[in-house]
Specification:
single chain; alpha+beta; 1 helix; 3 strands; elongated
Length: 69
Amino acid sequence: MATAFKIDQNVPMPTGRALYPLGQLNIGDSFCFPLTKRASVSSLAATYAPKKFTVRKISDTECRVWRIA
């Protein structure tokens, strides 16, 4: 069965800064972000093992993520 996707080779990955600074947080550090991005930040935080994070809603419009381990 043929694939519907065109496969490209030798395409360089874009460089740039991450949207959320999870990799820069030390234990106890945190930052706020819009409530509408909660699912995205939670999913991204799960990929940073063995670092651990917790995400909490802090207002009707904002959440905060903390590095806990």
